[in-house]
Specification:
alpha/beta, five-stranded parallel β-sheet, five-stranded mixed β-sheet, 11 helices, 13 strands, globular
């Protein structure tokens, strides 16, 4: 765990930020290939842009950004160049944490806390993929809270205290989806589905009464839900105990709505006058863009021209600095075990 400045408490934020980029540049130059992890897509874009601006003679075609909002073509291009050893530095959000086996990476930098011991070990494990190599990773901290959190994270990693895996149990929203999926496939009985569900570890303690409540919900027994456009999805014959799907579009509704990840609307970015796709941005970000605004995507600067439906058109050759400073993206949650360690340390 390293700090870019001598004193993290009594220092101007601009000086600390300048120190951070100088330290990153120094570390990058000491190694063949460096992989830098940030916690958000916006931070990834900001780091690539600032490294290019502050050290323009060092970073031109040898630096890349990698995150989920970039097009598959650009992501694959970055991964290919990384494998071939053509890139000096790649900045990523969480998209390169898993499944990347590249022998050229000899240093991993984490900007701020990875928020869990397991995630830090995954990130650090991207380095040192050669015979006799050791994993080499550094966490750069920018404030006192980060210093405490990252020091304890590293202590836990050394002591092999990896976050426990939490398996959710009796999640009735997921159970509703699974029951609906079963009855779309075939008519069956209430008891048969209950016996099947109970074989899953997650539902081994599910009470029959709770299961029946879910069936009542799915079969539209709560009429007041219709006022909120929630309609019955299955039929339930109380005499025979059989259940089955309801409505002709049941399969379509099921296939287009299954899952528990909240919907995110993304807008495709294309170069104006061509069909070339460069990536995607959140719909909320597009709503705040005005024609002429300049923003960063994949470390390159684009000027927004106009949008048509779910496609935004941009100019690629822009010499102006970005006018849009940041864009929204998901933040990482702090793991429970690490939070408990931090609480214990602070009490001591």
């Amino acid at each position: 765990v390293i700090s870019p400045v001598e004193n993290l408490i009594d220092i101007d934020s601009k000086v600390a930020l300048s120190g951070m980029y100088n330290l990153m540049h120094e570390l990058i130059q000491q190694h063949k290939t460096t992989l830098i992890f940030t916690n958000t897509r916006s931070a990834t874009e900001r780091v690539v842009h600032n490294l290019k601006e502050n050290f323009e003679t060092y970073y031109t075609d040898n630096i890349g950004a990698h995150h989920s909002s970039l097009s598959k073509r650009i992501r694959r291009d970055i991964e290919g160049k990384l494998r071939e050893g053509k890139l000096k530095v790649v900045v990523s959000s969480t998209s390169l944490e898993l499944g990347i086996d590249i022998g050229y990476i000899d240093l991993v930098l984490c900007l701020g806390s990875p928020k869990s011991v397991a995630r830090f070990l995954q990130r650090a494990g991207r380095a040192g993929h050669k015979m006799h190599d050791k994993v080499k990773a550094r966490i750069i901290v920018m404030d006192r809270d980060d210093l405490v959190e990252c020091s304890l994270l590293l202590k836990s990693a050394i002591e092999k205290k990896i976050d426990r895996v939490h398996i959710p149990t009796n999640c009735l929203d997921v159970l509703s989806q699974q029951i609906f999926g079963i009855v779309i496939y075939e008519q069956t009985t209430v008891n048969a589905v209950y016996e099947l569900v109970k074989q899953s570890y997650c539902y081994k303690d599910l009470k029959f009464e709770e299961y029946l409540e879910v069936l009542k919900y799915l079969s539209g027994e709560y009429v007041s839900l219709e006022d909120r456009n929630v309609y019955a999805k299955i039929w339930w014959d109380r005499e025979t105990g059989f259940i089955g799907r309801k409505g002709k579009l049941a399969r379509v509704i099921y296939m287009t709505n299954i899952g528990t990840i909240p919907d995110e609307s993304f807008v495709t970015i294309k170069i104006a006058g061509t069909d070339m796709q460069v990536g995607m941005i959140d719909e909320g970000f597009l709503e705040r863009l005005k024609p002429g605004d300049v923003f960063v995507l994949g470390g390159d600067v684009y000027q927004f021209r106009y949008s048509n439906g779910m496609v935004a058109y941009v100019n690629a050759s822009v010499s102006r600095p970005p006018t849009v400073p940041s864009w929204t993206s998901e933040m990482l949650p702090l793991s429970f075990d690490l939070a408990a360690e931090i609480g214990k340390f602070r009490r001591l």
